[in-house]
Fold each of these.
Amino acid sequence: MSNSNKMSRRRFLALAGSGLASAGISEHLGALKARASNQSGKLDDVVQNPNKKDRLESKFSFCNFCPNKCGLIARVQNKRVIRLDPNPNHAKSRGMICARGNAGIQQLYDPDRLKYPLLRKGKRGEGKWQRLSWEEALDLAAKKFRDIADKYTRCGWWFTWGADAQAHFVHRFANVFGSYHKANHESLCFWTRNRGFLDVFGEGPPYPDVLNSKYIIMIGANRFESLITPDSIDLMTAIQNGAKLLVLDPRRTKTAARAQEWHPVKPGTDMAFVLALMQVIIKEELYNPEIILKETTGFNDLAEHVRSYTPEWAARETGIPAREIKRIARELAQAAPAAMVYPGRRSSFYTNSTEIWRSFAILNGLLGNFDRPGGLLARQDLSLHEAKSYLAPWYEDNPSERADAHKAPLMFEDGAMLTMRDVVINEDPYPVKGLFAYHTNPMQAMPNRDKTRKMLENMEFVISVDIKMSDTAWMSDLVLPAPSALERRDPASVKQAGSAGACVYSRDPVVPPLFESRPVFEILKDLAKRLDLGKFFDFDLKEYREEQLKGMPEVKKALQEKGVYNHNASLYGLYKDKSLRTSSGKIELSSARYKEKGLNPVPVYKRPQEVPENSFRLVVGRNACYTNSNTQNNWLLLQFVSDNPLWINPRAAKRIGIRDGDEIKVSSSVSQVRTVAKVTQDIREDTVCMWSGFGNISDGLTQVGHKGASVAELLEDHIDTLNANAALHETFVKVKQA
Ligand SMILES: Nc1nc2c(c(=O)[nH]1)N[C@H]1C(S)=C(S)[C@@H](COP(=O)(O)OP(=O)(O)OC[C@H]3O[C@@H](n4cnc5c(=O)[nH]c(N)nc54)[C@H](O)[C@@H]3O)O[C@H]1N2
Ligand SMILES: Nc1nc2c(c(=O)[nH]1)N[C@H]1C(S)=C(S)[C@@H](COP(=O)(O)OP(=O)(O)OC[C@H]3O[C@@H](n4cnc5c(=O)[nH]c(N)nc54)[C@H](O)[C@@H]3O)O[C@H]1N2
Ligand code: SF4
Ligand SMILES: [Mo]
């Protein structure tokens, strides 16, 4: 980084705090100085300059740096984005964009961006590339699609993606091309949570009405750092309004620090705590019998099941004193139904996480909070028309089912990343030899990086569509440059979130695409043409969106005038006098369906494996200033988080002779990495933690370079036994001086 690119940490903090960080970015870009922010949310408020070429235009968009997709207003001058402001019309994100969103212009103007198609020349991962024209790249890709399909059937291809508004076109392409393999980031993230809540409420996960809640128990979630809008915003307001926040986390996160209570629970024992809360609530009859009778099924089964899960027993498991558990149960029941166990997001924790999260869902059911203010909200009735609907062709020679079907009894139908990786490595039950990866970086997102490397090495052709040379792109055969979100048109999307309810959003290019970048929709369309599947992509995005919004003039108008359509319909009572979508039509406190499948109808506690002597449990978590491996090459954000030290408790550090800042070696059963120690009281003595996204192998990321260590390298690959979601907290490590 040149000196002129550097901004002091204090200065960026001050700017970020005042919402003016992007003014600093515009200086860096050499663009004209940003003007005072237009916070009105009206686009006709365009600031005019007497000099016409300096006209400052404002354009709606939405952020793409994490799954939240917050509303943005881009300020554009001479076809350059000079700053990004929040779109205050957006009910979900309101007047907020976080540090990452603020620093987002840097992704658009990152000199490290991929600029044209690249074909691997040397060995995989060697970094030798040949520039191709788009014609050459697409011809080659189409040939490989055909060759691999001819040799191994169409299911010899696997399509994967991250959270993005065009990802469903990859899904569409996979369907019409004829592959069953669509395992994606969701199986590294929230599958176990979705499964658990779905099987209790018939839809999953319900949306937490944080704003109106009086009592929130947050287990294994970190809303003031791992931001989810509007929950992160509303949690602050709810606390100011007198709500109680209670956090269970082996780390004292920023959320734990702001909570009225923080319990540094023993990792993996949360279900014991929740079962004991249920035991007290049922034993002391603190539930609402009318709600239980009318809206739930399986109460007696549950009551019988939790009888032996006493607070005294749970105290031994969790380390949380029995009297505290009793008090919390009473306070929680007292606040119900405006009380909740927060439904989280990332739930890729343990091999029994589905059951852990199902126990959270059942406790919510017992609190009678579903579909009521301050509780868990149901899905609102807002859908777009299915545009350009299609019937995927049937391919006679395809295998009878997905290669990773039956790896777990409650999988979702796209398949899971970790089970698919094993399929590729072992070529069992059949070979999968092609990978199409869009907006995702499995080399950093999947645990046990060596195995991901093996998987890629065992593939005949890997295509990566990314904006930068991620580690996965670095290991690919063909790398295709994508435009940033600010340069592309997207279909309309519906998103429902927390207390904000549902909204519709979409984007048009804010500035023309740079270099030779091409949106994945266009790439797939061109490939489809070459593969005689053109009729399935025979439209453009304007037409597609037009069809999605047919007969919805109020949505179109709001998108145009406000950059978002907020669905101002009732949030509560959506299921009043209606059956839920569970098999019983009620909230299932005990599941007959699980019983039929030979599974436990009620969640049974499984004690986590004890931490072996001289070892630590490795957990992962997030920082407010970066997203996984997405924002890591952003030099502005790197000033806040420049590497990923290992969090370790002072007593543990002392025992093994390690001081703060020491160079250390961390080893697991699959690998070892070097990093530095961050000795801190903010973590339990038996647990260590590292952030993800560092320790890259790609030479194409000059800002982050090879800084820090890859936690993906260190993590063992365990899966949830019910639905094959990755289980990222089942790795034990040893730590010593380097
Ligand atoms: N160690 C560890 N592993 C984890 C987690 C963890 O906390 N720790 N978290 C898990 C979770 S919850 C998740 S959701 C997954 C996420 O894993 P991924 O879905 O792989 O997400 P990211 O790491 O954000 O990688 C996003 C990729 O998309 C690229 N990209 C960004 N913008 C664009 C764009 O506009 N177009 C295109 N084509 N590409 C773009 C980025 O350069 C990056 O390579 O990781 C999981 N794995
Ligand atoms: N700033 C920022 N915001 C983000 C993202 C990002 O990368 N950066 N990513 C987005 C995505 S994809 C997701 S999925 C969400 C994830 O956001 P969250 O769902 O909040 O998940 P994490 O922050 O990954 O992990 C939650 C916490 O679980 C704790 N933990 C570990 N083991 C245990 C345990 O056994 N019991 C308990 N009680 N706690 C435990 C960890 O210490 C960590 O603090 O955030 C989203 N928002
Ligand atoms: S939370 Fe931050 S990074 Fe995520 S979409 Fe919103 S502004 Fe962007
Ligand atoms: Mo996630």
Note: Residues 134-152 form the longest helix (19 residues).
Amino acid sequence: MNIEPRSSYSPLEISKEDFIKAGHELVDQIGELLCCFDNRLVTSGKRPSQIKAILGDAPMPAKGVESPKELLHESARLLFDNSLFNGHPMFFGYITSSPTPIGILSDFLASAINPNVGAGVLSPMATEIELQTIKWMAEFIGYPTDCGGVMVSGGNMANFIGFLAARKAKANWNIREEGLGDKKLLVYASEENHTWIHKAADLFGLGLQSIRWIKPLPNREMDLTMLEQKIKEDQENGHHPFCVVGNAGTVSLGVVDPLDEISILCKKYNLWFHVDGAYGAPAAGLPSASKKLKGLSLADSVAIDPHKWFYSPIEAGCTLVRNKQHLIDAFSFNPAYYNFKGDGGDQPVNFHEFGMQNSRGFKALKVWMAFKQIGREGFQKIIQQDIDLAKMLLEEVMATPELETFMQSLSITTFRFVPYGINGDDPKQKDYLNELNQKILNKIQEQGEAFVSNAVIDGRFLLRACIVNFRTREEHIKLLPKIVVRVGRELVGSW
Ligand SMILES: *Cc1c(COP(=O)(O)O)cnc(C)c1O
């Protein structure tokens, strides 16, 4: 065969000297970013079309660049100037944490080793580190440490894993062979549940009608009387209730369902008890945790999201499953072309058997490193501080006449702007206040001094600050009500 010989030096390769130089320079740049968010806005507030214009619409380059170092440097600049920084101490939006610096470096290390954590033989130490990370997460939140578990990309995927394990375990026919057929599997969830459950019911073949929505009580917790009544009715009507989802911190308000009592109901009716702890599960590890939150230790599966309240860089989610056989039952296939089993008794753990992915990245390292960096007590302290700051925000809002508080739970505080002379309880003002607060939210997000998101509760549009941010301090909390009032007044004057 007549081929052009490949040079001993691939164009993709970077020489040792250049790699070290480029890497150091990038780390210097990132160090400057991480040290000094207070000198920047949370976001540039540029419109998508402006961002697109900055990037340009060149076709894929036919040839490469001279200097990878320059390329890295320029690309870092491009991102620094045109990103939203959830690492900023004034970022309080959704449930997104500042990324741990050690996690940032860990992702770099993880991709250098590039283990495929789908199979033990392809990732010997990474597999053990993931197992240990899962065990430590379970230990932290008070879940049995001999549980099974798997790391995934985030909360949605973590909940899907629990959902699928439940579906498999509680169908009393061979669902792997026969599928759902005409059987009606039913899942019970609070109306406050995160929308992952819509996706799960749709994607996994149950259909949206298989979700039995439980209206929350006035305090927003799941109404257990209604839950039990619906389960009974459905069982009597020959349906197959299979799972109840409890929330360890709802996505909008941070409300914790009475998980201890839900677990009793699930035992009584032989249902799988899944806890969505994507946001709040880590708070179960605090000395201040409530009995209802600690009830997550009784669940059959728990979704937990290290990229939320363990401050890991995105992506990192995890599902814990009380009995690991349930993961294997739901997810394990072993084709002939896998040689992953090893000889004799000392068998490797193969994570492809525990979840949906085949090739898998090393998501555990950044979580494991942070656990080692500051330990259990370190995390307990920071998580508790986030909660205390959210409480402090409530007090600041209460002390501000033009702000009306709604609720504070875990590290979420909700409130809204009500101008002088307007009565927030007057139903005639509802639309006006909703529109005003929507405008305030957009303006704040655009201006970039702070970033909050919203909740809509009983038709009221609320501003919502969620503190899962180890960089936020009291001075930042004190600033937020002032920004909201200033923007609110500007808008009232101009509109
Ligand atoms: C954030 C969140 C999810 C979704 O998690 P992702 O990591 O965004 O996929 C699910 N449930 C709750 C309660 C959440 O807070």
Note: Residues 392 and 477 are 8 Å apart (CA to CA).
Amino acid sequence: MSLKMHIPLQDLKAEFRPIKSEIMRAIEDVLDGMTLYMGPNHTAFEREFAGYIGVRHAIGVSSGTDALLLAYLALGVQPGDEIIAPSHTFIATVAPLAFLGARPIFVDIDPLTYTLDPAQLQRALTPRTRGIVPVHLYGQAAHMDAVLQFALEHGLWVLEDAAQAVGADYRGRKLGGLGNAGCFSFVFTKNLRAYGNAGLVTTNDDDLADRIRRLRDHGRSDKYTHPEHGLNARLDEIPAAILRVQMRYLERRLEQRGENARFLTGRIGGGGIETPVEAGHGKHTYHLYVIRSPQRNELAAYLGERGIQTGIHYPIPCHLQGACLDSSRAPESLPETERAAAEILTLPIYPELTCEQLQYIADSVLEWTAVTP
Ligand SMILES: *Cc1c(COP(=O)(O)O)cnc(C)c1O
């Protein structure tokens, strides 16, 4: 075994170094101009991102969570409404519903893709159901044909939580353009980052887009006119300028993540470790490279000793979070969700990993499987 390495789960400094001068110039240009929101970068980024996803509207907002809140508001979520969502996701998928008095109805996942299992939708349906929120978890699309078909049959809207899946697609169509709207996050942990909070809503619905544009900016129709109450949830000009620089590198970086993932899967797959499954219905962008083992905690500790930082996304499902206990509804248990929470482990997969580092990660995992009964 080679010398001990130190490999973090993310290496933002390594990403920043080669693009530093471009980023600094973009920030400087904004500060020279002193238009700090709704400026030229904001407008250009919305246009560029809409073109990239292939939707009519991209509405920049202050975070992924605000994107979800604004979309729920604009879709008309009311107190008492029920919204079907996976429990195996980041809490922000459903948190905004609580503030609107609505209830998330949690369903189980397909254990291969970790995304909402469409076979569970019928059981969750009630006369109060209004919409479905498929989450494109880890950078891979949910089973959208079945979700969209079910929504159509029952008159429900579909809001895609694409926070982890910028650039991923479903049967050739970029995620965020399949449902009534899509939500993105550009927080620093995601694949396109603004080095601060930022988010965006995509939609092909003109009315929905107008509504979200007003709601993100104090409910304004013009500077001093407020036909309705809104939020202060705009995308600022500095993050917009940073995002425009990041967009130039996005595709290349996603490709590199995919290559790293295929390398790891090729090396560590087939033994006692379950590696990520590509569903075959679209491009997986590997926001997170998640393996699983019934002895996850032991494996994480072993890799930690070898200097490899790992993560768990997520150890406690939403339906078991204190925040959800009163407002949500789920069957007695969600067996696949709970089993995944106990077994999953996220390995480093960032584009700047060297061949030696990737090799070291694979060797360390294999070494653990060799010494584990
Ligand atoms: C990150 C994330 C969010 C929230 O985005 P923020 O920008 O952190 O507010 C929502 N849903 C999922 C699935 C996420 O991963």
Note: The chain has a mean pLDDT of 96.
